[in-house]
Amino acid sequence: APAPPPAQHLFSDPAEIEALRGNLLAWYDKCKRDLPWRTLAATEPDADRRAYAVWVSEIMLQQTQVATVIDYYNRWMQKWPTLQALAQASLEEVNELWAGLGYYSRGKRLQEAARKVVSELAGRMPRTAEDLQKLLPGVGRYTAGAIASISYGQATGVVDGNVIRVLCRLRCIGADSSSPAVIDRLWDMANALVDRSRPGDFNQALMELGATVCVPKAPLCGECPVKQHCRARHRKLFGKPAPVPDVEDCGVGGCPLCPPATEPWDSSLGVTNFPRKAAKKQPRAARTATCVLERRGCHGAPEYLIVQRPSSGLLAGLWEFPSLPLAQGLQEEKQREVLADHLRAWTGWPVAVGGLRLIGEVIHIFSHIHQTYVVYSLPLDGDVTLDPALSPSRWVTEEEFHASAVSTAMKKV
């Protein structure tokens, strides 16, 4: 069996834990950001409505910055102020409001879960982190802990990217922070630290600390309310921490939380030695030919043809200009030919290769794909009626296009 982590990586002193809780909560009360979901959670007397407000914010905040989320959140809560209202919405409406926020499956799962609460749980949210995670699609361990602690007062911890960074620095945890063994230990630590009387505030304080002070680069250590508990800062200031042994010394026993021997402490990095992450996988490159079909509308304004993507996979259910994946290395003339063939088969129109005008290229980075759209335009004299069995399609004005459920990538196109 692997050796247990030495005490120096853990919080084992009750007096230190109590001091850390007090310092962090006092700082949070004084310095927390004024965010709409916090205001709603603090002023909403109904626990289930409070949970819904927190839930929406947590799903939106996954992989997305706070500044981007605020406007989307306000519009969402204005349109669907309750879980019941969301359950009655269509997926098309959800996608339209979510457009531009990215990771579109989040909105779809959120609505699916709302419908499940209404249809299978009599409209009542699960009250514990365990039940939230078990019963609601799209709700993982972190989201469940956030909802349960903030809305229902359950004394359960949370671990997100900000919390990982804070805890790894507080206790000099230098093993790969994405590994299951380290993540499990961080959850144990978060559950041990969470304040029993103010669990929601404590969890938000820990996340707020990581978001505003204990940031990835150039952390504001001088402003940190728990700096006296931070082993990484102590090591930066004083070298080998005393009286506990050096973090590298505990590697003798095969410590699962120490930095690997191949990546020793870099004194020039200070606290930003932690956390250590596995090397990111490079996104794969992909190329897509996209054709903007344009006609003159009945009022003289140009209209553009958009089609709906399949209901599963990347950008599921969103609308886009007719597009076709390209094999890597195709010459431009060959790209035109395959696109013209695709459009002919699809529309039944005699699309000439020479009629396709190359506009340029648009690059969009998804989390796992480096996507290049090769953009063509094709003006048409008449209507195009597509077979609905192939894919739903419609003609839209520029204004209608921007109001539709289209991705940020298509807006660039």
TrEMBL record:
<dbReference type="GO" id="GO:0006284">
    <property type="term" value="P:base-excision repair"/>
</dbReference>
<dbReference type="Pfam" id="PF14815">
    <property type="entry name" value="NUDIX_4"/>
</dbReference>
<keyword id="KW-0411">Iron-sulfur</keyword>
<keyword id="KW-0408">Iron</keyword>
<dbReference type="InterPro" id="IPR011257">
    <property type="entry name" value="DNA_glycosylase"/>
</dbReference>
<feature type="domain" description="HhH-GPD">
    <location>
        <begin position="60"/>
        <end position="212"/>
    </location>
</feature>
<dbReference type="InterPro" id="IPR044298">
    <property type="entry name" value="MIG/MutY"/>
</dbReference>
<keyword id="KW-0004">4Fe-4S</keyword>
<dbReference type="InterPro" id="IPR003265">
    <property type="entry name" value="HhH-GPD_domain"/>
</dbReference>
<keyword id="KW-0539">Nucleus</keyword>
<dbReference type="GO" id="GO:0032357">
    <property type="term" value="F:oxidized purine DNA binding"/>
</dbReference>
<keyword id="KW-0496">Mitochondrion</keyword>
<dbReference type="InterPro" id="IPR023170">
    <property type="entry name" value="HhH_base_excis_C"/>
</dbReference>
<dbReference type="InterPro" id="IPR000445">
    <property type="entry name" value="HhH_motif"/>
</dbReference>
<keyword id="KW-0378">Hydrolase</keyword>
<keyword id="KW-0326">Glycosidase</keyword>
<comment type="similarity">
    <text>Belongs to the Nth/MutY family.</text>
</comment>
<protein>
    <recommendedName>
        <fullName>Adenine DNA glycosylase</fullName>
        <ecNumber>3.2.2.31</ecNumber>
    </recommendedName>
</protein>
<dbReference type="GO" id="GO:0051539">
    <property type="term" value="F:4 iron, 4 sulfur cluster binding"/>
</dbReference>
<dbReference type="GO" id="GO:0000701">
    <property type="term" value="F:purine-specific mismatch base pair DNA N-glycosylase activity"/>
</dbReference>
<dbReference type="InterPro" id="IPR004036">
    <property type="entry name" value="Endonuclease-III-like_CS2"/>
</dbReference>
<dbReference type="GO" id="GO:0046872">
    <property type="term" value="F:metal ion binding"/>
</dbReference>
<dbReference type="InterPro" id="IPR015797">
    <property type="entry name" value="NUDIX_hydrolase-like_dom_sf"/>
</dbReference>
<dbReference type="InterPro" id="IPR003651">
    <property type="entry name" value="Endonuclease3_FeS-loop_motif"/>
</dbReference>
<keyword id="KW-0479">Metal-binding</keyword>
<dbReference type="GO" id="GO:0034039">
    <property type="term" value="F:8-oxo-7,8-dihydroguanine DNA N-glycosylase activity"/>
</dbReference>
<comment type="function">
    <text>Adenine glycosylase active on G-A mispairs.</text>
</comment>
<dbReference type="GO" id="GO:0005739">
    <property type="term" value="C:mitochondrion"/>
</dbReference>
<dbReference type="GO" id="GO:0005634">
    <property type="term" value="C:nucleus"/>
</dbReference>
<keyword id="KW-0234">DNA repair</keyword>
<keyword id="KW-0227">DNA damage</keyword>
<dbReference type="InterPro" id="IPR029119">
    <property type="entry name" value="MutY_C"/>
</dbReference>
<dbReference type="GO" id="GO:0006298">
    <property type="term" value="P:mismatch repair"/>
</dbReference>
<dbReference type="Pfam" id="PF00633">
    <property type="entry name" value="HHH"/>
</dbReference>
<dbReference type="Pfam" id="PF00730">
    <property type="entry name" value="HhH-GPD"/>
</dbReference>
<dbReference type="GO" id="GO:0035485">
    <property type="term" value="F:adenine/guanine mispair binding"/>
</dbReference>
<comment type="function">
    <text>Involved in oxidative DNA damage repair. Initiates repair of A*oxoG to C*G by removing the inappropriately paired adenine base from the DNA backbone. Possesses both adenine and 2-OH-A DNA glycosylase activities.</text>
</comment>
